[in-house]
Structure formats: C-alpha cells, structure tokens
Amino acid sequence: MPTMSIDRARSLVESCMVEIGHTPAEAATIADHILDCELRGLPFGGLARAQSIVERIRATPGERTPIAVVRESPVSAALDGGDQVGYLVARRATEIALEKARAHGLAIVGAHNTWYTGMFSYYLEIVTTEGFAGMAAGSAAQIVAPHGGAQGRFGTNPIAFGFPSRDQPVIWDIGTSAVMHGEVVLTRRLGRPLDDGLAFDRDGHPTTDPVAALAGALTVWGGHKGSGLAMAVQLLGMLCGASAAPVGVSDVGFFLLVVDPELLSSGE
Questions:
Q1: pLDDT for 204-260, tens place per residue?
Q2: N or C, which end of the chain is more exposed by having fewer CB within 10 Å?
Q3: 127 and 134 Cβ atoms separated by less than 8 Å
Q4: Distance between CA 268 and CA 9 in Å, rounded?
Q5: 90 near 111, Cβ under 8 Å?
Q6: SS (H, E, C) the chain
Q7: 164 has pLDDT over 90
Q8: Measured on CA atoms in the order 187, 191, 194, 199, is the torsion positive or negative?
Q9: Spatial contact of 79 and 95, defined as CB atoms under 8 Å apart
C-alpha cells in the first residue's frame, strides 16, 4: 500500500486549493481540517474530499463571494457564506461565536449559502479548548429518506455536542443518516458496493450500487427517532437561512451554539 508523509499530504492539499482560487491562508485552513479527518480514520472526509472540493468549484466557476455577516446582535450573527466551502465558513462562524461568548457568556451563529462544512468535532474541539460547551448542527440537500419512506427529504444532517473537561473534551458527533454522503462518494470512486440496507435507487428499491444510491436516497439512522432528529436539524438549517430543499452540493445550513458553563453552574 502506498504511503505519504503528513507534511507531503498537507502540501498536496494546499497546492490543490490554491490552484482552484483559494489564498494560501484559506488553503491552510482547509488542509488542516482535511488532514484532521484523515488522521482520525475518516478517509471519506480526508484526502478524498479535496478532489470533491475541486470538482464542486470547477462545476460552479465564478460564483463565490466573500463571507459576510448579514445580521448581528451582541450574542448572535448570521453569515452568508458566499458559496464558499464550509471549512472556511464554519471556521469563521466558530471564531465569531467564541468572540461573542467571551464577552457575553453565550453566542448563537448561523450560516447559509455554503457547502462541505466537514467534521463538527473539529469546531467543537476549538470551542471546548476555550472552556466553553457547544452544539453544532447542519442541514443539506434532500438525499436521506425518512423512516418508512424511500425518497430523500433530509440531508445527512450531522449534529454534535461538546463539553470541556480537565483532560480531553467530551464530544459526541454523528450524522443522522445510516451512511454519510462522503462515504458513498468514496465508495463510488473505489468501485465498491455499499453494505445492504443503506440506500434506495431512484425508484425506491433497495440498492448496494453507490451510483444508484446517489441518484436515489440514503436511509436514515435510528428509525423514526432518527427521522425526528434529522427533521429538527433540517429546521435548524432553515433557521440559519438555508433552503429547505437545497439542490445538489449547495446551501448547507450551519448552526452553532456556544455557552459558558459559568452561566448555569460552577464551571469547575
């Protein structure tokens, strides 16, 4: 099996991101997140994701605008991501939330008009390192069927919680689909089948073909309870200004809540 050093992998991702129009600083932010995923053993969000970013930007040339705060209060902010990749938008949302939480004890920041926000544990590690608790949730295109259905109504809709501690933070981070979209894309690239029970084709029949699955729908995690959680995350994305039914890889909603434990009890 071929191997690559971390430094070489980071350099490769950064050079790819610069090639498609990112600044060196933006490329470094994206690469840091991608390498974090790869080193955690999540290859679908690791180096393979760099190829997906390149494909997405080349398919939509010239449409990106700067990330902008479009609504703000002392404890909240709403961001228009400008169709920038979510690794940049969610990182900016995290920085704003921390700045406001330091000043006021809590913050709510939402973002829309972005895509590929990545692994929410990444942002919650930043939050918990600062001594805050946090919750993150994100909506996406209708590619996951609710329990009892076979047509997409929700995104893979991850939700995550993070709590600081004296040692390592306590972070719980899941997708509300039975399989993540990135896993299906990577399986398709590798020419492998999916496991049974993870997807439907466009006619609503169960399938293990990742190509058919991407044209159809993925199954939800957790049955009817997972469907309810996925619906709530979709609504949180709409609360952030995202569409209820984005088309393709676009207009992800990102919701972030940051809380100082001292507001409710002894932080210790």
A1: 999 999 999 999 999 999 999 999 999 999 999 999 999 999 988 999 999 999 999
A2: N
A3: yes
A4: 40
A5: yes
A6: CCCCCHHHHHHHHHHHHHHCCCCHHHHHHHHHHHHHHHHCCCHHHCHHHHHHHHHHHHHCCCCCCCCEEEEEECCEEEEEEEEEEHHHHHHHHHHHHHHHHHHHCEEEEEEEEEECCCCHHHHHHHHHHCCCEEEEEEECCCCEECCCCCCCCECCCCEEEEECCCCCCEEEEECCECCCHHHHHHHHHHCCCCCCCCEECCCCCECCCHHHHHHCEEEECCHHHHHHHHHHHHHHHHHCCCCCCCCCCCCEEEEEEEECHHHCCCCC
A7: yes
A8: positive
A9: no
The CA distance from 89 to 85, in Å, is: 7
What confidence tens digit (pLDDT) does each residue in 169-178 have? 999 999 999 9
Q: Give percent above pLDDT 70 in the chain.
A: 100
Query: pTM to 2 decimals?
Result: 0.94
Name residue, tokens 């159809």.
216
CB-CB neighbours of 170 under 10 Å: 13
Beta bridge partners of 253: 139
User: Which residue, chain included where needed, has tokens 């990749």?
Assistant: 85
